[in-house]
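FAQ: What does the model actually see?

It sees only this:
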Amino acid sequence: MTGRFSAKTVLVTGGTGGLGRAVTLAFLEEEANVIVTYRKQEEFDALKRTSKLEGYPTDVTDERSVHELVENILARHGQLDALVNTVGGYAGGIKFWEADAKIFDQMLAVNLWSGYTLCRAVVPAMLRQKHGSIVNIASKAGLDHPGGAAAYAASKAAAVAMVDSLATDLKGTGVRANSILPSIIDTAVNRRAIPQADFAQWPRPEQIARVILFLCSDDATVIHGAAIPVYGDT
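And it is asked to produce this:
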């Protein structure tokens, strides 16, 4: 523990899930004020029992809900120093022409629209502060497009492009935006989905969390508009 984020306020969306939980705990260990969004009350309760943590069951694809969340954070803490969006979902294993069109809408909503609404809500506050860091979790699939997952790959590719464009808009403002591109993350959900895989090759949530903390820290002020691969040994 170094206290790099002491007195800093950080929003981790999806902050109780497989990757989000690791990110939340890492920021808490660095003494940040951490606010999370979550869907499952039991996940938040488990984290809350062992930490000083704020949480809101927010639909981050809903613009009004997201703006209300950010306004509440600013009213309570007076600032928002970092946003880490870990919200996402996967659908795959189906040929392009056989997939239900609803899957495309679902992937765009959870993997692209969530980041869009969140960035639009936090950027004005960060611009007023003249500082802030945004990290959006995309995927290796956003660059290396696998078969059987066209909707997922398209949504993640769009998310990378969106943050890259946002970063260009933010040049010179003191606000930075970057993407993280994990391969398959070593979570319980992914292990159950692919039980025959070599889990040792997958990046662990704690490893990715350390990369995210670095990107949000003052040590990474020269990193802006990057898409950082976090592939493990895959």
